[in-house]
């Protein structure tokens, strides 16, 4: 796990006098993976909405950092983790920690992005994979993503709201740099089974958030 909080991994250095790029060390590759996971999760509209609305309680933003650490720890425990297992883990954490049922299958893209990042770092030792994610994160204000949010209370909830992507000026509240990741206290051994997405009459798939009691 990374021991420093910074905006991303530093570029690979060069051998003194020789001008030959030095390969990244295992520690630098792990740090890059940690940062890349944080960026990938931060780009997930469902998680962004959950953090924006503090569905994880007062410690919501800390939970997002913990979430990234939990995914990193999951790879450490299970290096050959499959796409679907990671997707189910992402859904489980969203439900357990953020009271949010993601039903638009957006976890598929997030999971594949993270596994693709790991492959480029481990097999190709390519730190550019993390820089690509950081650029996407920095430019996320330009994203326009249609997400239907439906909040459920103990009784009947409201009709929900539509959310059209990240807004400019949210860096300070939501966190603008990848922090030091917090080790996960425990990683579930068996992710839950994915549920089929629910589509409403307007053709929207749903991201369902349950307000904390």
From TrEMBL:
GO terms for biological process: rRNA processing. Residues 1-26, 151-213 are annotated as: Disordered. Residues 177-191 have a biased composition (Low complexity). Pfam families: WGG (PF10273). Keywords: rRNA processing. Residues 152-174 have a biased composition (Acidic residues). PANTHER family: PRE-RRNA-PROCESSING PROTEIN TSR2 HOMOLOG. Belongs to the TSR2 family. This is Pre-rRNA-processing protein TSR2. It comes from Salinomyces thailandicus.
């Amino acid at each position: 796990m990374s021991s420093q909080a910074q905006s991303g991994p530093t570029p690979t250095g060069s051998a003194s006098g020789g001008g030959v790029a030095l390969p990244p060390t295992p520690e630098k590759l792990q740090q890059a993976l940690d940062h890349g996971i944080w960026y990938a999760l931060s780009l997930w509209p469902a998680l962004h909405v959950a953090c924006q609305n503090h569905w994880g309680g007062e410690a919501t933003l800390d939970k997002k950092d913990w979430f990234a650490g939990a995914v990193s720890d999951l790879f450490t425990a299970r290096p050959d983790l499959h796409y679907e297992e990671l997707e189910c883990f992402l859904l489980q954490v969203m439900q357990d920690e953020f009271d949010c049922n993601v039903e638009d299958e957006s976890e598929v893209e997030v999971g594949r992005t993270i596994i693709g990042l790991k492959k480029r770092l481990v097999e190709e030792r390519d730190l550019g994979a993390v820089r690509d994610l950081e650029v996407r994160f920095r430019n996320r204000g330009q994203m326009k993503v249609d997400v239907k949010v439906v909040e459920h209370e103990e009784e009947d909830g409201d009709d929900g709201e539509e959310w059209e992507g990240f807004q400019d000026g949210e860096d300070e509240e939501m966190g603008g740099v990848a922090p030091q990741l917090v080790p996960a206290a425990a990683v579930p051994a068996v992710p839950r089974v994915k549920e089929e997405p629910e589509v409403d009459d307007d053709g929207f798939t749903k991201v369902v958030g349950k307000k904390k009691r």
